[in-house]
Structure formats: C-alpha cells, structure tokens
UniProtKB/TrEMBL annotation:
<feature type="domain" description="N-acetyltransferase">
    <location>
        <begin position="3"/>
        <end position="143"/>
    </location>
</feature>
<dbReference type="InterPro" id="IPR050832">
    <property type="entry name" value="Bact_Acetyltransf"/>
</dbReference>
<dbReference type="InterPro" id="IPR016181">
    <property type="entry name" value="Acyl_CoA_acyltransferase"/>
</dbReference>
<keyword id="KW-0808">Transferase</keyword>
<dbReference type="InterPro" id="IPR000182">
    <property type="entry name" value="GNAT_dom"/>
</dbReference>
<protein>
    <submittedName>
        <fullName>GNAT family N-acetyltransferase</fullName>
    </submittedName>
</protein>
<keyword id="KW-0012">Acyltransferase</keyword>
<dbReference type="Pfam" id="PF00583">
    <property type="entry name" value="Acetyltransf_1"/>
</dbReference>
Amino acid sequence: MTARIRMASAADAEALAGLMAELGYAHTAEGIRDLQAEIVARGGAVIVAEGEGRLLGCVSALLDVRLAEGRCGEVASLVVAEAYRGQGLGAELVAAAEAWLGPLVDRVRVRAHVGRREAHAFYCRRGYREVKDQRLFARSTPA
C-alpha cells in the first residue's frame, strides 16, 4: 500500500473523528478540529496517512514537560483504519512522528492501554520497551 504521509489539516476533521471511533472514542468533527488546534498550539503535530482518496490512519506527536522526567516526546492516538492494518502504515506513521519529534527531544515514549496487547507487541517490535506500570486516576473538574 502506498500512502502519502502529511500533516493533518482542519479539512481532515470528519475523517479523523471516524478513525478515533475505531479506537472507541466518540468525537464530532468540530471537536476534533478544536483538539487538533490545541495540539498544535501546545507544540505538537497531528500526522495522517492518506491513500485511495481517504485518510487511512493518523498519529499525534506530542511534547510533554515534567519536573521529574524533563522534556519528552510522546506518540499518541495512533490508529490505522481496520481494512488497512497489517500493511505497514502504523510503522510509517510512528516513524513520521518520531522524525518530527527528533529535533525537539532526546526521548520518545508511548502509552498503550493494558488491554491492547497487539499494540504492545507493535511498539516492542519498533524498539520501545516497557519501563513503568502505573494507574491513571481521573475525575471531573468541579463546576
């Protein structure tokens, strides 16, 4: 499969919402446009794979700065449309995110849900190694 890897545009929002639905996240096109703009405003990028007249996949390249861990790049929200999985597009998208992050950081990390075992194997094949187990806690902000 030949795909063109490029930066996402606001016009991609509807297709990106569909890709996020494949990961189990419900977003509107408007919501995706807002999230894209915020990712870029915070110094990150949204990268897409395009082919056969449609978006085939996407990934976010994020910058994260923490007192304890310092500056780090993060590969997030990787998804390839189900019909196109297993053809190397995920690897191409991760490579594009790593290349974009490369001049900005000296480390790149990935978070993958504990239940996504195929994703764990995918990242391990690309040289990532598991470094930490942790629990994520969340709550709604007070009104």
